[in-house]
């Protein structure tokens, strides 16, 4: 049935439905295009299409674990991505050429010639990634290091205008083909390390087996020694019981050790000796007391005599003068007797060999 066969009311309703379907398709197309644009924008932001990017390159020994598009890290976060992986020339020192781009403003942290590339292991499956080190040392600024790329603001946007040239100490004009080299510090992949460890374990396995055999022999010897020690302890049980009995007797407070060391009649003899010594000491003490009493009495008498003599001397104050006068008068008497003619011969002096006295002539006489 054709459209002209429909009634006007049906044709009107069918037109409304067609317009609604067209509007829905148009809105769907617009939303699809908008979503696609958002996706492209996010992809561009993620890939760095809307920011300035600079190119670096380095050399490694092996391309294992790398692929184009892998992120390049700086200080732990993604700062760029790998753009090219190529084999080097046969005469080159390194085997693989790796090129990567760093997005703005991350390349401002890369200083020349301080920064370098570290090749790290990503997982146990052999994946590896590149990490660029930040220039300079922590908490310090070294003026000898400079930013690899120089920026200038143009129309409110940063634009890279120069690249630092190693050895010439100046910035060269920056172009789209400008690239900067960074040295690499490559460590072997985890799989290579595991292979090396497996080889070491395989080489050490015979030694480990011989060591286990030695341990088994040592354990057998230890078991045999334990058996011998058990028999020795069984044979030493009577000795231990005797020692226990002896220590029990030694704990007796009635002189058990003394009874072992001395004879049975030593105790009474020692008691008699101590009793006689005690009596002797008491006699000596008594005699000493008597002697001290007599000595005190004698000292008292001597003190009385000295006190009497002192009193006599103090009473007779002129006795010393009288004695001195008596001595002087006696001397005068003897001298007078020597000069008397009758007694002069009794006081003759005995001649000696001394020289004669020199006679002095009188004054005014001639020799």
What does this structure look like?
This protein has helices spanning 8-47, 190-235, 237-250, 256-261, 266-315, 319-339; strands at residues 53-60, 71-74, 77-87, 96-103, 111-112, 117-121, 128-132, 146-147, 149-154, 157-165, 170-173, 179-181, 184-186. The chain has four domains: 3-45; 51-187, no CATH class; 190-261, no CATH class; 262-304. The longest helix has 50 residues, at 266-315. Helices cover 48% and strands 19% of the residues. The model has no long low-confidence stretch (mean pLDDT 76). With 367 residues, the protein is α+β, with helices and mostly antiparallel strands.
Tell me briefly what this model is:
The protein is an alpha+beta fold and 367 residues long. 48% of the residues lie in helices and 19% in strands. The protein is built from six helices and 13 strands.
- Strand proportion: 15-25%
Overall structural domain count:
4
Q: Helicity, in percent?
A: 40-55%
Average pLDDT reading: 76
**Low-confidence segments:** none
**Strand and helix order:** HEEEEEEEEEEEEEHHHHH
Structural class: alpha+beta
Radius of gyration: 68 Å
Give the CA-CA distance, first to last residue: 215 Å
For the report, how would you describe the main beta sheet?
8 strands, mixed
- Please give the number of β-strands: 13
> What does the overall shape look like?
elongated
Core attributes:
367 residues, alpha+beta, eight-stranded mixed β-sheet, three-stranded antiparallel β-sheet, 6 helices, elongated
How is this fold's topology laid out?
Blueprint: H1 8-47, E1 53-60, E2 71-74, E3 77-87, E4 96-103, E5 111-112, E6 117-121, E7 128-132, E8 146-147, E9 149-154, E10 157-165, E11 170-173, E12 179-181, E13 184-186, H2 190-235, H3 237-250, H4 256-261, H5 266-315, H6 319-339
Parallel strand pairs: 1-12, 2-7, 6-13
Antiparallel strand pairs: 1-4, 2-3, 3-4, 5-8, 6-7, 9-10, 10-11
């Amino acid at each position: 049935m054709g459209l002209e066969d429909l009634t006007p009311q049906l044709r009107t309703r069918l037109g409304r439905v067609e317009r609604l379907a067209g509007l829905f398709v148009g809105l769907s197309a617009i939303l699809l295009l908008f979503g696609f644009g958002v996706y492209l924008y996010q992809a561009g932001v993620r890939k760095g299409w809307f920011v300035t990017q600079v190119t670096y390159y380095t050399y490694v020994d092996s391309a294992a674990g790398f692929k184009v598009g892998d992120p390049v890290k700086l200080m732990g976060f993604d700062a760029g991505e790998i753009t090219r992986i190529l084999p080097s020339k046969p005469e080159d020192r390194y085997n693989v050429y790796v090129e990567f781009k760093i997005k703005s403003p991350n390349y401002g942290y890369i200083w020349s010639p301080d920064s370098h590339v570290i090749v790290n292991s990503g997982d146990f499956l052999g994946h590896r990634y590149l990490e660029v080190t930040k220039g300079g040392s922590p908490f310090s600024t070294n003026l000898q290091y400079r930013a690899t790329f120089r920026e200038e603001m143009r129309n409110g946007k940063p634009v890279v205008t120069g690249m630092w040239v190693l050895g010439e100490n100046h910035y060269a004009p920056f172009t789209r083909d400008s690239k900067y080299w960074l040295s690499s510090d490559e460590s072997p992949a985890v799989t290579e390390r595991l292979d090396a460890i497996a080889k070491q374990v395989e080489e050490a396995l015979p030694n480990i087996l011989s060591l286990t055999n030695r341990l088994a022999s040592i354990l057998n010897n230890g078991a045999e020694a334990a058996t011998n020690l058990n028999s020795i302890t069984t044979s030493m049980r009577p000795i231990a019981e005797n020692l226990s009995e002896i220590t029990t007797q030694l704990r007796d407070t009635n002189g058990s050790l003394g009874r072992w060391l001395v004879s049975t009649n030593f105790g009474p003899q020692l008691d008699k000796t101590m009793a006689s010594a005690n009596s002797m000491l008491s006699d000596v003490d008594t005699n000493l007391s008597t002697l001290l009493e007599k000595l005190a009495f004698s000292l008292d008498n001597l003190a009385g005599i000295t006190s009497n003599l002192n009193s006599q001397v103090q009473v007779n104050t002129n006795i010393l003068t009288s004695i001195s006068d008596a001595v002087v008068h006696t001397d005068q008497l003897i001298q007078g007797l020597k000069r008397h003619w009758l007694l002069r011969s009794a006081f003759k002096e005995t001649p000696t060999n001394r020289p004669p006295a020199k006679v002095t002539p009188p004054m005014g006489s001639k020799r």
